[in-house]
Amino acid sequence: MQRALEQARDAAARGEVPIGAVLVCEGVVLAADGNRTRELADPTAHAEMLVLRAGAARLGTDRLASCDLYVTLEPCTMCAGAIAWARLRRLYYAAADPKGGAVESGVRFFSQPTCHHRPEIYGGLGESEAAALLRGFFRERR
Asked: Catalytic residue positions?
């Protein structure tokens, strides 16, 4: 999770919402990145989406069943859908997102009967640091 937090800090330095993600497979980091929606002018360029794309490209497959995702904020609905389609083994996230989260907040994507895959989910890892980073980022902009 520390590596994901580093990516979040790098995203903040670029003026992006400070969210970072790391994709790990069999103990090897396949991809690490932070949000790049503004930089790439792409509303889908969330940290999770970027590392899933990079990891799939690196492995040459759309199925990432032996991979784990570490992310600093509870994934949104779009990212939860991508996690399900990639069939990730485990999802670790730091801070809950009561407004935009879709894992244990909001739509609770993985609990829906139409969801075809549910990873193991572990929340709260590095929560205070991730939440403080986000609060500080938005406090500076308001």
From this structure: 48
